[in-house]
Fold this protein.
Amino acid sequence: AQTVTQSQPEMSVQEAETVTLSCTYDTSESDYYLFWYKQPPSRQMILVIRQEAYKQQNATENRFSVNFQKAAKSFSLKISDSQLGDAAMYFCAYNAINNDMRFGAGTRLTVKP
Amino acid sequence: DGGITQSPKYLFRKEGQNVTLSCEQNLNHDAMYWYRQDPGQGLRLIYYSQIVNDFQKGDIAEGYSVSREKKESFPLTVTSAQKNPTAFYLCAIKTGGTEAFFGQGTRLTVV
């Protein structure tokens, strides 16, 4: 079964600085998708960024970017110019086509003013 | 969000009672999912359905039941067999086999 591991239960960053959240996954599939979701205190799950495994280019969405290393099965999220509103739980997720989506245990990000 | 409605937002259950959590979507997607989230933890899959009248167990299906009689609806029943039901429950739809979009969740508490 596919597994997703987030090894950092908590991280903190100074406002305006950069932070990287780590994620590794295990799969035997060759075609799949990876995601980062944000869960603020409201508990609403918000999609931050997605990466298709067949694409070598790392995905970028404004201040959010990923470092996707397919051979190493690694998928880290970099948040640049951190803002107070970035404080939340962040979940890494894996999904193969027509399969269920698997989530990591999450990383709680604190942003210090 | 985005056409996924979970109700109620808060639900209280007495010991031994069955309760049903509602999940409705108007996005015309086939795949729907139920996840359970415990404090400080990730999401664990309870059940999922990829088509009407069909559903599969996830990792923690014991003590739960579902139905999928309509494409728009995927209700989750927490039965008395679920010994530790207090948790946050999230319903999701999956688009084109890729990302999931979530409802706003239901907080279930046993009293």
